[in-house]
């Protein structure tokens, strides 16, 4: 059997600040750290940001490896044995070695005036001279450093281990179209019954019907039957007809679904057996409005939840306007324009005049809380309806911190548009929202819907397509 040739991967600082466990993710290959990377880790360790915490963790990993190495010469490299308790999702592979730059960079091997990049490139060129014929690859999330490395003849790659999937177009959409022969194909093994006013079907999955729990199924055409996968037991699947929220008599807090995907979203949001819902869609598809309407209906009318908590990633689109005065709620108010805009839609009524509207707004304000993500660690939400807006700007680790706040009776809803990522170093395939959609699709108490059709206005629809 052919074996892959052993390579040496040179890690840039931003890789370790993005994922400290990157040290242990290169299987049997060696990892090389230039001295400038250690200098930058030291400079970045102070602070309370995610990057600072990751820099400190990377330094702890390296310190632990040095302590385990003992008194042996460090030039031989440190065995990259994973620390106890570190789960990387794969079994323990053959471990490579961690090597360091032990000699200064020669003046003649410098490129440009940007000192950190210059030093890292110099260290790579010196390493190649020391190990002729050995493949050395730079791994960096800095596009410009990868360009410089390519110019110098050094192979350079992006750090891809943090990707949820290789191509964003492969992301689970939450729904699938059935062909016209579906009923004929399952005619012999089909069983149907009615329970609590809902129609159920049980059948055996045919080849190619790789469905997930709570996936929505539909036929071509708007008026055709729509189904939801309720249960999967080996090859047997139970499907249920979805509720139709398109008609006013079935409205959720005055909101009706305007298209098929919105109807699927309301079914997922109103289902008490689903604890986690992700809604993905471009601007104007109705993500926030649907989540708020379903939350109000179940908080105010059904008393299923005690209150609505709304939070979002505070990443500016343009220049920052500085510090905001006031309490936590007052500081978050400018970020919550989506909440106030949608509340105007949901509370728009002529009954009672201005006094009636004000009374309604005061009542809703007492049941809707705006919270900053900065203070979420350590909290537990009991019987709350939690909306995480702009989730595409969160890293997988930040999203994990938020989702693990859920206590008994709490439902979490993540909203986002991966075409509007404002966080540096995050892409469509590495966003925390993409991670959540991909990792939760097999869980029986989660649902995902990709909203495709904008319902905001003809101007917004045209701008979304044309610009």
Question: How does this structure look, described?
Answer:
There is one protein chain. The longest helix is centred in the N-terminal third of the chain and has 20 residues. Helix 2 runs antiparallel to helix 4. This protein has 2 domains: 150 residues, 3-Layer(aba) Sandwich (Rossmann fold), CATH 3.40.50; 299 residues, Rossmann fold, CATH 3.40.50. It contains 14 helices and 18 strands. The chain has 467 residues and is of the alpha/beta class. The strands form 3 sheets. A 6-stranded mixed β-sheet has the order 3-4-2-1-5-6. Strands 7-10-11-12-9-8 form a 6-stranded mixed β-sheet, with no helix packed on it.
Residue share in β-strands? 15-25%
Radius of gyration equals: 26 Å
Q: Mean pLDDT, nearest integer?
A: 85
Query: How much helicity do the residues have?
Result: 25-40%
List the uncertain runs: none
Strand order of the largest sheet: 3-4-2-1-5-6
Question: Could you name the CATH class of the largest domain?
Answer: Alpha Beta
Q: Given the helix and strand composition, which structural class is it? A: alpha/beta
Largest sheet: 6 strands, mixed
End-to-end gap:
52 Å
Number of helices: 14
The structural domain count equals 2
